[in-house]
């Protein structure tokens, strides 16, 4: 009997996503803010890309990087939220094993890519403020394309081991994932073998990607602040620093929740599982929702084009 049960999960064809354990009765209420944030993220990021594409004055490195960020945000939220909402609304918990691995790959790949794009945007701000006369010659369209390609390759290659290694594990306990999407650790914990290599690789990626990116951003802003404090007037300093406001908000929206999530998963043993899963969903949804709002409200060129767009439609 036990042998039969064991062999049944050795190579599962499907997994069952449990959703948010303990909050099943609140799924309808939880789905309302989730769905609202998801719609805002989709509409907002498509709007940003449309405005940058149609407004000739926005064909600059900063806005090309912003479009890359918008694409990344769209992939991140659409890779998890439709399935999560289907669990909330239709109790559709089953997910194909290969689809689960693909979802895992997209989450890790595009999370890393988002971090890399923020580094590229920090580089843009550094050159624009510290060496403005060379900005157009340093960050040409060709260089921007190469940076985007490098960020994509780094993220895609480093994320590949997650699904490939996970696919090799034998699963003999259960095929029920205590999560609302195929989160790497939640899936690996179902394996009935030593999975420390997955944990070690996850830490390696965390330090080699997020760690290096944070250091690069910190160094960039150190140089930026030095350049700002050398400006002669307070008004000039505030105006120049204001051009970094949207980027700083984007950095905060990504790295602060990521840091908090890492701490709670490693040291928050008494934190309820439902809170961890809820926070994991919010972490993947809030940055894609906030980025178009922040850049739309704080970037004058985008805000003016958006206002003209709605004014034109009204007339």
List the helices and strands and how they pair.
Elements: H1 2-8, E1 14-17, H2 27-54, H3 61-90, E2 94-96, H4 97-130, H5 135-138, H6 141-159, H7 161-168, E3 176-177, H8 184-188, H9 196-229, H10 234-242, H11 245-267, H12 273-298, H13 300-314
Parallel strand pairs: 1-3
Antiparallel strand pairs: 1-2
What can you tell me about this protein's structure?
This protein has 315 residues and is mostly helical. Helices cover 77% and strands 3% of the residues. The protein has helices spanning 2-8, 27-54, 61-90, 97-130, 135-138, 141-159, 161-168, 184-188, 196-229, 234-242, 245-267, 273-298, 300-314; strands at residues 14-17, 94-96, 176-177. It has a three-stranded mixed β-sheet. It is globular and about 65 Å long. Residues 1-8 have low confidence and may be disordered.
Quick description:
The chain has 315 residues and is an all-alpha fold. It contains 13 helices and three strands, in the order αβααβααααβαααααα.
Largest sheet: 3 strands, mixed
What overall geometry do the principal axes of the alpha carbons give? globular
What's the total helix number?
A: 13
In the sheet with the most strands, the strands line up as: 2-1-3
In percent, how much strand structure appears in the residues? Answer: under 5%
Mean of all residue-level pLDDT scores? 88
Low-pLDDT runs of 5+ residues are 1-8
Distance between the termini: 73 Å
> What structural class is derived from the secondary structure elements?
mainly alpha
Total E-strand runs: 3
Question: What Rg do the Cα atoms give?
Answer: 22 Å
Sequence of secondary-structure elements: HEHHEHHHHEHHHHHH
The helicity comes to over 70%
């Amino acid at each position: 009997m036990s042998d039969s049960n064991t062999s049944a999960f050795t190579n599962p064809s499907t997994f069952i996503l449990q959703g948010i354990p303990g909050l099943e009765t609140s799924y309808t209420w939880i789905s309302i803010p989730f769905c609202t944030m998801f719609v805002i993220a989709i509409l907002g990021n498509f709007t940003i890309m449309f405005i940058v594409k149609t407004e000739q004055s926005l064909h600059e490195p900063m806005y090309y990087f912003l479009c890359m960020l918008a694409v990344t945000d769209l992939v991140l939220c659409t890779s998890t939220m439709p399935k999560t909402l289907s669990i909330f609304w239709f109790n559709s918990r089953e997910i194909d094993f290969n689809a689960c691995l693909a979802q895992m790959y997209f989450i890790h790949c595009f999370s890393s890519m988002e971090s890399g794009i923020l580094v590229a945007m920090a580089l843009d701000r550094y050159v624009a403020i510290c060496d403005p006369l060379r900005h157009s010659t340093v960050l040409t369209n060709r260089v921007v394309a190469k940076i985007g390609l490098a960020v994509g390759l780094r993220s895609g290659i480093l994320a590949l081991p997650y699904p490939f290694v996970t696919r090799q594990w034998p699963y003999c306990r259960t095929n029920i994932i205590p999560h609302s999407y195929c989160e790497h650790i939640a899936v690996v914990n179902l394996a009935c073998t030593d999975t420390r290599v997955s944990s070690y690789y996850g830490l390696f990626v965390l330090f080699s990607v997020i760690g290096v990116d944070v250091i690069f951003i910190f160094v960039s802003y150190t140089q930026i602040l030095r350049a700002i404090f050398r400006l002669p007037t307070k008004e000039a300093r505030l105006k120049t620093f204001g051009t970094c406001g949207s980027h700083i908000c984007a950095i905060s929206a990504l790295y602060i929740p990521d840091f908090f999530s890492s701490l709670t998963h490693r040291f928050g043993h008494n934190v309820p599982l439902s809170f961890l899963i809820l926070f994991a969903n919010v972490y993947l949804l809030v940055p894609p929702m906030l980025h178009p709002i922040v850049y739309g409200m704080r970037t004058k060129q985008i805000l003016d084009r958006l206002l003209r767009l709605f004014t034109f439609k009204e007339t």
